[in-house]
């Protein structure tokens, strides 16, 4: 136990506390080692009786038994063994040593002060062998050196987000929005404050002309709710009830960890959007996975009407007026429709669009990461077994919703981003986990990993890195003569 501990000391007494005559805190005790047998320590009151006694002490017994190992005439330890050390002598000796030590340091410090006008702390490597802590304790005249004040540099880097937001507002405020400039700005991410408007324009829902936007919104929103009046009551008819039943089953399963999508009011909105789309697109109808594609639009358009400090994924939508909810619902329907128009072959019979994209992904990975491709082939892992979902749901089941929204900023900025650029994103996404996949040495382990990828912690930084890799792949292979021959 440390000599500076506040706990009561135990010394073998029944009470467990220190008593007069026993060792006290900070007392010096002999330290024994392998070459030094213990000294015979006895209480002072028994000195006379020990001298008159004929019994040999413990050390004498030890000496007799080990006479061949000890030199009686030369070893100083035998002389020390007969010296009785009192506690008072030990204390007075230690006190004298410390006082002498203190005087030496005081004299040295005074000399240093005269020479340099600075009092230094004794070093741990000094000739006195004293560390800084000892020097401070013994030299009461020591003072810490004056600290150098910290000089803070001014942040000359401008607020990039504020600057970027101003650029977006400048582009969007013009009489005719420059779509090329808007795409260029949007590729690296769209600020939340203008994301809803930018998405509506980039998706083709809103015209570039500022004067035409408000009339277009009013007309399209009215048109959507006319579809509701015309078609929604047919959801229980025999020819449509299977479609609506499947939608009704899928909606509660959608994003189960996101609170907003478990609200009944939100689920009813999604049922109307998906049913109306399925009725108006009989060639494909509703296919599982389409329900996921509505969620980013809904969350982004919702963010227009709530405070910036409120997390949209946990917002209680019943707090909003009915008119506001109708606006969000209609805008989500039309933007989802625009998205699906570009990838509708993904959802027609046998989903040929997805099958071609999976085949193209396999060919691309074979060219950019041969060890990964061979490893999957050796373990009999088919690309269709894990990447079908990547194509069907646009990676929405693989990354958090916040990352999907950031990813879609770039998809909408790219020409045919959801149809073509998504392929390169999937390739970069798979290659990113190459080392993890190579560590799995069986079919089941690989599939389990690919279906539960460690992306729940991802933020915009990871998406930015993924998009950068996809961009490189696009310009390395998109114009190659034999690129993706299987797709063609």
Question: Could you explain the architecture of this structure?
Answer:
The protein is mostly helical. It contains 21 helices and no strands.
Task: Describe the structure in brief.
The chain is mainly α and 488 residues long. It contains 21 helices and no strands.
Describe how the helices and strands are arranged.
Layout lengths: L46 H6 L5 H8 L10 H6 L5 H30 L15 H7 L21 H14 L5 H8 L5 H11 L7 H22 L9 H13 L10 H17 L14 H8 L19 H21 L9 H17 L1 H9 L4 H10 L8 H13 L3 H16 L1 H5 L4 H9 L8 H18 L11
Helix pairs in contact: 6-8, 7-17, 9-13, 10-11, 11-13, 12-13, 12-17, 14-15, 14-16, 14-18, 17-18, 17-21, 18-21
Poorly predicted spans: 1-56, 69-81, 115-139, 152-157
Largest sheet: none
* CA radius of gyration: 41 Å
Task: Tell me the number of helical segments per DSSP (H or I, 4 or more residues long).
Answer: 21
Order of helices and strands: HHHHHHHHHHHHHHHHHHHHH
- Name the overall outline: extended
Percentage of residues in helical conformation: 40-55%
Instruction: Give me the secondary-structure category.
Output: mainly alpha
Oligomer: single chain
Terminal-residue CA separation:
80 Å
Averaged pLDDT, please? 79
Note the beta-strand portion.
Answer: under 5%
Structure summary, number of beta strands: 0
